[in-house]
Amino acid sequence: MNVTINDYLALSFLIFTIGFVGVLVRRNFLTVLMSIELMLNAVNLNLIAFSRRLSDLTGQIFSVFVITIAAGEAAIGLAIIISLYRQRKTLNVDEADTMEG
Amino acid sequence: MTGELLTGVSGWIFAAFALVAVVSAISVVLARNPIHSALFLLLTFLMVAGLFFLQSAEFVGAVQILVYAGGIMVLFLFVIMLVNVQQLPLADPYQKQIVWAVVLGFCLNVLFDAQLVLGPLAGGEPFRPDAFRTVSGSLLGNTQAVAWGLYREYLLPFEIASVFLLVAIVGAVVLGRRSVEKMD
Known about the structure:
The complex is a heterodimer. By secondary structure, chain A is mainly α. Chain A is built from 3 helices and no strands. In chain A, helix 1 packs antiparallel against helix 2 (29-53). The longest helix of chain A is centred in the last third of the chain and has 31 residues, at 58-88. Chain B has 6 helices and 2 strands. Chain B has helices at residues 9-30, 34-54, 58-83, 98-118, 142-153, 155-176; strands at 134-135, 138-139. In chain B, strands 1-2 form a two-stranded antiparallel ribbon. Classes of the chains: A mainly alpha, B mainly alpha. Chains A and B meet through helix 1, helix 2 and helix 3 of A and helix 1, helix 2, helix 3, helix 4 and helix 5 of B.
């Protein structure tokens, strides 16, 4: 069984799509954030696959940056969740509608 | 991996990692209890880290385990603990437009996969394992090679990332603290 870049890319597309559907479908703020992490991880997989395909280290360096951004995003997102829970006693994304037009 | 060692077996290792990663990713989205979602997310992160190792990205795989499976998961579990999800009002965990969202996701996936069919990416020149381990001519490790790029060619993005992390720390502290009058 020979694994090519296409297999890795198909896997990364699949995980990205699952995360995308998760962001759209879930009501719980925590799970939405987890789905965003899934999407970021799929992008990392894509970068690494191309890095290997081109024998170029740049993809690996970029995925280190993506992991950095993901860590910051998780910290801020979870702080927002804590803040929302203190004020509204809920984690439902539909209830955070103060800025709704 | 370097190829010779795992020829024949690596395909099956990839298949196993990919299968578990996809199944646990779906479980992250479907699980009703956020704790189950978090644990499935951990499993997905570990499987993706295994795929990084399989593609000779040892440093990124280690960072994935340390930062994602170590740091971010602990953060998630702490928040789940603080929020006390068991006492939240029970509601339907999925939005009403779930069918449309799944259809949209499927279309998106078909759109992505069309690139694989239309533009053949496989083949070409074979992978050179030394490219990931060569530091200015001498053969060292993957970590040295990544650091060489990170601290020289991508020094400015690296510094910006460190400022970004500082901003994230300050932002998280400001967002997370209680207001002074409520603190008894």
